[in-house]
Please model this.
Amino acid sequence: MTDGYSEKVMEHFASPRNVGEIKDADGIGKVGNPVCGDLMWIYIKVKDNRLEDVKFKTFGCGAAIATSSMITEMAKGKTIEEALKITRSDVAEALDGLPPIKMHCSNLAADGLHAAIKDYLEKSGKK
Amino acid sequence: MDHSATTAVDPAVVEAMLPYFSEKFGNPSSLYAIGRQARRAIEDSRQKIADLLGARKEEIIFTGSGTESDNLAIKGIAYKNRKKGDHIITSSIEHHAVLRTCKFLETQGFSVTYLPVNKEGTVNPADVEKAITPKTILISVMHANNEIGTIQPIEEIGKIAKEKNVPFHTDAVQTAGKLPLNVESLGVDLLSISAHKMYGPKGVGALYIRKGTFLEPQLHGGGHERNIRSSTENVPGIIGFARAAELARERLLQEQKIAGLRDSLIKGVLEIKDSYLNGHPTKRLPNNANFRFSFIEGESLLLNLDMKGVAASTGSACSSTSLEPSHVLLAIGLKPEEAHGSLRLTRGLGNTQEDVDQVVSVLPDIVNKLRMISPLAR
Ligand SMILES: Cc1ncc(COP(=O)(O)O)c(C=O)c1O
Ligand code: FES
Model:
């Protein structure tokens, strides 16, 4: 059943980090998966141009949950500029790869983070 | 609890098969002793399969799988009757072995009506009657659905088919060995079964063909199986299939009793908030329970269950290779996001009340955990 998922994916899936909402979030990225209809919401809290906190909520498969968990870990503590540099493939790589059919799920995680940052930049008038 | 996917071969079945790999290796078409011995064993097996179905021995053709039986029945009738008509009636919840065969025939100039089902997954016999035209050459409606377990009103459809003189096929792959089967009372002309769903080996199936119903062969060759299905017979497979059929007949009463376990599972699981049963509440396979939980996705549900040692399946788009939700769940009117949260548990003979209790005890926490992660749940 878990064939095809790396140990890292399973580990993040079994105990996902940073689950939840940030009540007074500075930016929220809500993205949906056009392929299978899943949803990923990423919340960020920014202080001094750094992502002080990142949280997520996801409705989707094991890979979707693991990639959301992973991206929150990768983004936390980074500056806005650094976080914007995290690419779709970075997330998949950090999880030791994903089955080809699941690549669209990791795309969703990076897209969600970028959408949250964009939301923050727009709200704070920096763009 | 994923016994609708396949079952382990019964040790008694293995034992029956073994000699036919070694000392009894004969080709049933050979005239010398071991060949004749194999021939006799096949004909005995044919009788046992006929007994399971209330059919005559001459009406049973061995095939390579349930899929092949479905293909042979549908294409065989379609090509044989091309001059009479080109219209086929089936349901929208058939197994792909039927649906994709029908889709293929559409590319060959046949026209197909895919009947809808109600929210419990039942075909309305009146719809079958209405769909019949003078050009209709085949009706194919499955006996019970492999995903949601709903049992179809085959007897009623059989009566209509007989009245209108249209050949009637049913895919009984899921019911063989679980429900009493009788081709006369069902009123079918063709019926498909598969060994590996009833504790027999993989790669062997059978097609019942009523006397007087004629098919175009789909495998041409040495003329085996009354010239309908050429291929040197899979002797060990056929022997194993027949032994499995015998054992299944002995167990039928037990299967009925075991429906009690299914109901206890259903009752326990439905205690979970925002959970629903897919399929018919009572007219369903004795071993099938199919649920849906709002706000969560099936593959992640399966992974969590697997970590607790429970095997299951789902109709979620995320766990299908096509990334599309199950056609059966869509046909019963579910939205794709509802299909996402589906979970199928199919009990096997080895499963006990303790297995049911285990599922009922671990499932609520798993569902809650996933709902905590889900943006849809509040
Ligand atoms: C209803 C139904 N029909 C047909 C089949 C195909 O049978 P087989 O695996 O023997 O090809 C299956 C099993 O997958 C089934 O559940
Ligand atoms: S979220 Fe649907 S396949 Fe990953």
Chain B has two domains: 11-248, 252-373. The domain at 252-373 of chain B is CATH 3.90.1150.10 (Aspartate Aminotransferase, domain 1).
